[in-house]
Design brief:
11 helices, single chain
Length: 341
């Protein structure tokens, strides 16, 4: 059961038809498991499947849950070496569902969310998965954003300053008062040590294993699609690598509500992941400590936002009850890294 009534599904079908993708018959819908931010559904006409994404109905914060942004970047990346789902429909009005929504093509494959999902994969296959993930991230950072129509997708300069300011403002909305002092210390160090920017690229903003869809087996394993683009922008590619490494911290399990695939000790340590990216891309990870500290602060704010939505009555289930416990842990990690930089 979902909150997508037959009337709403009929409206979605009409909107899809206007975009040249009419369902063959009435749509049905199921909630797709996973996700602590946007709401994700699989819709089907019995012959084909699509994925529908909407922001949460309550507890949203400014600039987060941006399905419009997701649609724009995945549309632009079609035809590039970056694997993405087909972007089919963007409905920006609130008339049908009360919020904007997108519809994209369904991509067959596995989403590796928990450590239990890794059990069927032997170590050699898992190494291939990581290698393909790194390759997809390098491919993303190699895309000429202006050439694919994303010249106005975000400012190309002063990414670190803009990110520090943005996530500070998000914290002011969702951060628990008892952690305000520690958060302020982290922000003060970040603002003091803002680095220069040597490279500019499309930045995914939330890159980790469960934001990819994995297909194939053995040496033929591949990333079939990179998903969850709501935090994407134009910025410093080092930030993507730092976020990928920040999610390797064990406290991320509290956000997932289970031992997560990305914190498994079967995967490379953060420094090894960073080195693997540097070798594959041919670029040094400049100002690494700053970006690592900022990434951990971002994850703290994301976790605080999940807890904020729980308290607002939007969202339940694995991770919602425990995400708040990870906030002080990620803040402390950010503080320690920033203090050493």
């Amino acid at each position: 059961m979902t909150d997508l009534t037959p009337e709403k599904l009929a409206g979605i079908a009409d909107a899809m038809a206007l975009e040249g993708a009419p369902p063959a018959r009435e749509l049905g819908a199921t909630v797709l498991s996973g996700g602590r931010s946007n709401l994700t559904y699989v819709i089907t006409d019995g012959q084909k499947r699509w994925v529908l994404r909407t922001p949460p109905r309550t507890g949203r914060t400014p600039s987060a849950h941006d399905v419009v942004r997701e649609h724009r970047v995945t549309s632009a990346l079609a035809g590039t070496p970056v694997p993405v789902a087909e972007a089919i429909l963007l409905h920006e009005d609130d008339d049908l569902l009360g919020v904007p929504f997108t519809v994209s093509g369904f991509v067959d494959g596995a989403t590796l969310r928990t450590q239990a999902d890794l059990v069927p994969l032997d170590d050699a296959t898992l190494a291939v998965v990581v290698d393909r993930m790194i390759a997809a991230l390098v491919a993303l950072h190699d895309v000429d954003h202006a050439a694919v129509g994303l010249e106005e997708f975000g400012r190309p300069d002063r990414y670190a300053a803009r990110q520090a300011r943005r996530w500070k403002s998000q914290w002011e909305i969702v951060g628990p008062p008892e952690l305000e002092g520690l958060a302020n210390e982290v922000v003060c160090v970040l603002e003091r040590d803002l680095p220069s920017q040597r490279r500019t690229s499309i930045v995914h903003g939330d890159y980790r294993i469960d934001n990819t869809i994995i297909a194939g087996s053995g040496t033929a394993t591949r990333v079939a699609a990179v998903v969850d683009w709501e935090l994407s922008t134009i910025g410093d590619p080092v930030a993507d690598v730092a976020m990928m490494c920040a999610y390797r911290e064990p406290a991320f399990d509290l956000i997932m509500g289970a031992p997560s695939a990305w914190t498994s000790n079967r995967l490379p340590e953060p420094d090894s992941l960073a080195e693997q990216y540097a070798v594959a891309s041919g670029h040094d990870l400049e100002h690494w400590s700053f970006h690592r500290a900022l990434a951990c602060f971002k994850v703290a704010v994301i976790a605080a936002g999940i807890d904020h939505r729980r308290r607002a009555g939007s969202g339940s289930g694995a991770g919602f009850d425990t995400a708040g416990e990870s906030v002080p842990q990620f803040l402390e990690i950010a503080h320690q890294i920033a203090a050493r930089s």
